[in-house]
């Protein structure tokens, strides 16, 4: 087990201002450490936002799955309470129709859930994609200054 005294970074101040001072002390010509750290901070914020959106999507999908389950249970109770016809052919026809409707509803629900997940993933990806593009532009601008 690693203890604090075994950790070479224990007690180090990782605040952005201190990290910036540490990098600036490296004295690399033409490197704007403030710009680099600011860019990386934006990258981390974009990843956090992408994760937030992904989690919101999973939460929405979970809520919807629960609603669908509740509806399926309510439908099952209604079907169970209906009187059973005396003619076996009528009973079979009714059960077949109920199964067909349940299957169609399940397929529709699966599509809805897939669309929800796809939308959530697309939103999270868009945040990261936009940040990557902005980050590349920032790097290009930093290189021009150097």
Description:
The protein contains three helices and no strands. The model has no long low-confidence stretch (mean pLDDT 83). It has one domain: Helix Hairpins. Helices cover 79% and strands 0% of the residues. The chain is mainly alpha-helical and 146 residues long.
Q: What's the gist of this structure?
A:
With 146 residues, this protein is an all-alpha fold.
CATH topology annotation: Helix Hairpins
CATH architecture: Orthogonal Bundle
- Main beta sheet, described? none
Q: Regions with pLDDT < 50 over 5+ consecutive residues?
A: none
CATH class, please? Answer: Mainly Alpha
Helix content: over 70%
Number of strands: 0
Coarse structural class: mainly alpha
Calculate the terminal CA-CA distance, rounded to whole Å: 44 Å
Radius of gyration, in angstroms, nearest whole number:
29 Å
H/E topology pattern: HHH
Instruction: Bin the strand percentage.
Output: under 5%
Mean pLDDT: 83
Number of domains: 1
Number of helices: 3
Net shape: elongated
Secondary structure: elements and pairs:
Blueprint: H1 16-24, H2 33-81, H3 88-145
Helix pairs in contact: 2-3
Question: Tags for this entry?
Answer:
146 residues, mainly alpha, Helix Hairpins, 3 helices
């Amino acid at each position: 087990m690693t203890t604090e005294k075994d950790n070479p970074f224990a007690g180090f101040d990782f605040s952005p201002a201190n990290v910036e001072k540490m990098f600036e002390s490296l004295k690399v010509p033409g490197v704007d450490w403030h710009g680099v750290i600011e860019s990386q901070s934006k990258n981390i914020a974009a990843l956090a936002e992408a994760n937030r959106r992904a989690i919101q999507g999973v939460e929405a999908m979970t809520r919807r799955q629960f609603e669908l389950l509740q509806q399926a249970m309510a439908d099952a109770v209604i079907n169970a309470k209906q009187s059973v016809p005396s003619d076996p052919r009528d009973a079979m026809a009714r059960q077949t129709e109920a199964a067909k409707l349940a299957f169609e509803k399940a397929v529709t629900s699966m599509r809805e859930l897939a669309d929800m997940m796809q939308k959530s993933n697309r939103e999270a990806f868009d945040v990261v994609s936009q940040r990557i593009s902005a980050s590349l532009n920032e790097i290009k601008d930093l290189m021009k200054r150097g």
